[in-house]
Amino acid sequence: EGIAGFGIPAMLIAPLLVRAGISTFSAILISLSANIGAVTFGALGTPLKLALGIDSPNDTVHFVLLFNALPIFLLPTLIALLLQKSEGIAIAWGQEWKRLLGAGLCFVVPYLCVGLYSVEFPSVVAGAAGLILFVFLFYQE
Length: 141
Hints:
This protein is mainly alpha-helical and 141 residues long. It has one domain. Helices cover 76% and strands 0% of the residues. Helix 2 runs antiparallel to helix 4 (59-87). The two termini are 29 Å apart.
């Protein structure tokens, strides 16, 4: 979403989830839900730059960052809950809660940090840095 924008990542991931055995409804809901964090700064900041005429971070951008932070932080947990309820996938909450909250934190921290200095790159950097952080901090065999 950070680079392509306009919901393209959600459109691409939903069929892959269906192919992986997730129901169509859940696949659409998950892919659209996972996309919400990056939309504001998607397509290299196009929504803010074109719609609002914002070229550099200001109070509006800071408000958007803070307003999005909590839902983005909780999103992995909410998606896991959705998978458990709609698909019957068993989740060991006692073991996985750290990973789920960690995944949200790995995206939110770079998102907030980069958003203080740029309207083009919060989603791009948060996605890439968040993936790398998550793999190194929470991936265990």
